[in-house]
Amino acid sequence: IIDTGIYSADPEFAGRISPDSTGVAGNTGPEADHSAGANAYHGTQVAMVAAAANDGQGTVGIAYGATIMMIRSDDPGSCASPGDCTFGDLADGINWAVAHGAVVINMSLGGDGGAAPDEIAAVQNAAAHGVVIVLAAGNDGKGKPDEYAQSLVGAGGNVIIVGAVDSTGKIASFSNRAGTFSAEYLAALGVNVPIFLDDSGIYDPTTTTPINGTSFSAPQVAGAVALLKQAFPLLTGQQIVQLLLTTAEDVGAPGV
Question: What is the pLDDT of residues 60-71, one digit of tens each?
Answer without folding.
Answer: 999 999 999 999
